[in-house]
Here is the input.
Amino acid sequence: MNKKGQWLAVVIIVIGMLMLLNRNINLLTVAALILLTIGMVQVRKGDTHKGYRYLGIGAALLLLDNLMIVFLIVLASLVYFYSKNKKIHLDGNVMRKQNFMARYYWDQAPWTLRSMSLWHALGEVNADLSLSIPEDKQTIVLLQGVMGNVRLTLPEDYGVEIEATVLFGRISVNGEQDSGMMNKLVWRTPGYESSEHKAKFVISYIVGDLNISNP
Here is the structure.
């Protein structure tokens, strides 16, 4: 059996099991599961553009058909977000924002880098640290949400530490990438300890695409 036949068989088996467990399953849920499976297969094959498109459409269909699941996912993400805030011990002088949808483009003009705590259901963050003006010697940036697309460009003279977790999606560091499920990254720039300015990014998404590169 070829690869297409293998993942098609997996889809059929999964759908069959779901139908046995829940006879009320409808065609919208079946379509969503098929698209999610195709998306994961495409991502694992390296075709991330098509893969994330299928994953996005499948997730949207599944969420539309299961509003309670949407609520529980968002609630779980928020609970994890607040517990992470307490664990990191961010002080009072921190920018805190919670949005359903957010876009941050810090790669087009000089911007102030300060400690911040951001959560969003759907979000996009593009940050070029070579354009940043650090507010303190040490900065902590917490980025969390349900679905996120994060692009970080790091200068050579800046000490950056990254702790990232992506349940479904991709993490890429200077072209080397891991994609699929349960991706984790703990990484520091060379010369981190001797850097005058340091920034720590703590990134967590259920579905995400994280790209880290040097200018």
Observations:
- DSSP finds four helices and eight strands in the chain.
- The chain has two domains: 3-65, 71-213.
- The first helix runs from residue 3 to 21.
